[in-house]
Amino acid sequence: MKAARIVFVPIVAALILTVIGCDENARLAEMAERHLDRQAEQNRQMAELHRQVADGSRELVAADAKAREELAALQREVQTERVETGRQRDELEKERRSLAAERRQDPIIAAAITSVGLVLACLLPLLLGWHLLRAPADDADRLIAEVLIENLVSEHPLLTRASASPHVITYDPAIANTEHADPTNASPEAK
Fold it and tell me: What is d(CA 188, CA 139) in angstroms, rounded to the nearest whole number?
């Protein structure tokens, strides 16, 4: 029996080791399976994370491109406004120069107009006197011309003095020269 025992012990030991080894293999297999499941879950999570990062990167690139387009549009607007401001500044400068030239010319023109008016005012009585001296054809016109000339050169003119009642021009023999005849006694041939 001792020999059977010797054979039996290694068989039982082999069986126990097999049972223990199988049980450990099953535990190792279960552990490996759980590890593979965890690895698969981690891989899936990493893939999801990579997808989210890629989506975020795409959105970031799109947002950056949009921001660059908006910046370029704003720069174009600023440039357009600068050009417009420059044009308006140039127009304002032209207007300022024009006004300055007018301010320099206006007193000169006013002085010239005043001088011409003064010369005309001085020449008008002379022209009137020349016309009256030259134009009368008969004695009555000469008498009127002499009265007007006398009125122009006298210190107390009768015709140009303002009064409340109108003056009537009457014939005054003291004013008339002795060589002129009285218009009321003039003969029809003199007229």
Answer: 12
